[in-house]
Amino acid sequence: MALTHSLGFPRVGRRRELKFALEAYWSGDSSEALLQQAAAQVRQYNWQVQQGLDFVPAGDFTLYDHVLDTAVRLGAVPERFKADEPAITTYFRQARGRAPGGQDVPALEMTKWFNTNYHYLVPELADDQQFSLNVDEQLAQIREARAAGHKVKPVLVGPVTFLYLSKQREGADQRLSHLPKLINAYSQWLDKLAAEGIEWVQIDEPLLVTDISSDWQQALQTAYQALSEAPVKILLASYFGTLGNNLALATSLPVAGLHIDAVAGRAQLGVVDKAWPEDKVLSVGIVNGRNVWRTDLRAAIDSLKAIGERRGNQLWVAPSCSLLHSPVDLAQEDQLDDELKSWLAFGVQKVEEVQLIAKALNEGEGAIGEALAASDAAAAARKSSKRIHSDTVAKRVAAITGNDSQRQSAFGDRIAKQREYLKLPAYPTTTIGSFPQTPTIRGLRRDWRAGRLSEPQYREAISKEIEAVIREQEALDLDVLVHGEAERNDMVEYFGELLDGFAFTRFGWVQSYGSRCVKPPIIFGDVSRAQAMTVEWAAFAQTLTDKPVKGMLTGPVTILGWSFPRDDIELKTIAQQIALALRDEVVDLEQAGIKVIQIDEPAFRELLPLKLADQSAYFDWAVEAFRLSAAGVADDTQIHTHMCYSEFNAIIDAIAALDADVITIETSRSANELLDVFREYAYPNEIGPGVYDIHSPRIPSVDEMAALIQRAEAYIPAERIWVNPDCGLKTRRWDEVRPALKNMVDAAKQLRSQVA
Question: Can you quote the record's cofactor note (predicted)?
Answer without folding.
Answer: Binds 2 Zn(2+) ions per subunit.
